[in-house]
Amino acid sequence: MREYEALCPGPPGWTVPWAQIRERFDWVRSMTGVPQDAVHHAEGDVEIHTRMACEALAELPEWRARPAAERVRLFATVLMHDIAKPYCTQIDSDGRITAHGHSRRGDLLVRRALWQLDAPIADREHVAALVRHHQVPFWALERPDLQQIAFRVALLARNDDLALLATADLLGRICQDTEQILENIALYREYCAEQQCLDRPRVFASDHAQFQYFRTPGRDPDYAAYDDTRLTVTILSGLPGAGKDHWIAAHRPGLPVVGLDRIRAELGIAPTDDQHPVIAAARERAREYLRAGTSFVWNATNTTRRLRSRSIDLAAGYRARIEIVSLEAPAPILHARNRSRTSPVPAAVIDRLAAHWETPDPTEAHRVEWICTAA
Question: How far apart are CA 129 and CA 363, in angstroms?
Answer without folding.
Answer: 12
